[in-house]
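Final report, results section. Input specification for complex C-07:
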Amino acid sequence: MKLITAIVKPFTLDDIRSALEQLGVLGMTVSEVQGYGRQKGHTEVYRGAEYAVDFVAKLRVEVVTDDANVEKVIDAITGAAHTGKIGDGKVWVTPVETVVRVRTGERGADAL
Amino acid sequence: MEGNTAWLLTSAALVLLMTPGLAFFYGGMVRSKSVLNMLMMCFGAIGLVGVLWVVYGYSMSYGTDVAGLFGNPFEYLGASGLMTAEGDPTAGTVDIAFQAMFAVITVALIAGAVADRMRFGAWLLFGGLWATLVYFPVAHWVWGDGGWIGEMGALDFAGGTAVHINAGAAALGLVLVLGKRVGWPREPMKPHNLPFVMLGAGLLWFGWFGFNAGSAYAADGVAGVAFLNTFTATCAAMLAWLFVERLRDGKGTSLGAASGVVAGLVAITPACAYVDTWGALAIGAVAGILCALAVGLKYRLGYDDSLDVVGVHLVGGLVGTVLLGFVATTNVGTDGADGLFYGGGAGQLWTQVISAVAVLIYSAVVAAILGLIIKVTMKGGRVSAEEEVAGIDEAEHAETAYDFAGGRGGRPASVDTSVVSGNSRKLEETKS
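Structure output:
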């Protein structure tokens, strides 16, 4: 199993969710995060005093999936999150030892 | 008499509302970790100055004159002699109540300069001493029978010198002694809630009609002139501030609109009954432009006036008080004077400048001395650097304003923990 983590532009979330639903992905975790990559932050001005806001608001989408589905999930996310402009985000994949469903105690792929 | 009493009672309530309005105007501008302390400094001023005013403040301002400097503090001690249903209440109980609100907000205005760092106790001590040594006498100078500024013929309808120059100068004197916030100006200290700032500005504007038009002491044409000018100048000032921002920073901001509103209200305060529409527009526009530029001075000169009490209230008060020397006119039918542009010569201008400078210097010097005394006797008068970084709300009031995370695992400290774990055992039983 693999954990797929994507940092994306917030407005692309709906498209990502429907793309993953079509793949039959049954769950995801979404959190609001801040950070920066090549896309720099922006400048705010309060009573003439300028503040450089370095961190940009993004969403982190996390999905755990079977090894077989990894490429499909990556394609679905990158396809939905793509605008072609700087700041579209990143997707990375990490191995997952096991998964346990708290309610039933099922393990591994059965717990997804 | 009944009509005048009704209007003055209403105005008094309107002016009281300005201080909670100010609390939100200021509170939105501080960081989220010090908003409660900001609100508390304003509410604290209502409680403390309210009591002092009724006990001896009114008497010090409006009692029988002593050498042109202050009123006899014992004459109306505790409103004695005036606490009666007989006679004209606008010269008695209602006058005391109406003027109480002015004393309260003048002290509260200073709080914006010392945001995020001054100990609450030190603030109250400063507020009480400053009211006694500065506000009560200066209100007598300007408005009391025999007060030297009023006798000199200076015009201040509702408090350009007595309230705004006075509070702004005190803010400058106090912050110079108290010192900068930890991290200022290197770290960004941006407003945590701009809707609060707009809400506060709206409440201030609303209450200010009582402040200015109420100062006519009658429901008459003078009140009408003051009311309309208060509105006109404030509109012009908001536009002027936004115009400066558009040119300088590229965008007009909500903080700029709210600040422009307050700058305009401040500047028209001394002038509202003594100018025509053109005068009001000029005062508002000049105040909006100059205050928008003046709030940047603290970065150049290095004094940490947190919320720009100097840039808005001192500068706005000076604009209104001094411009009156140019644009005052008797054409509006009030007992003002004619300024330089209305054929009155430079005499009125000179009088206005003297009154402004006198109040400025006296208030700033006394505030600095009081600040020094507090600094020496009260461990600096401010919270420790560690407490300041963690947030003055927690350090001084044992509260935090916002709880987005369900109390961060908090539980009542007084509750026996065995009871809490007993509850969780019960939960386990229900589960199984």
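Chain A has a mean pLDDT of 92. The CA atoms of residues 44 and 51 of chain A lie 5 Å apart. This concludes the modelling results for the funded period.
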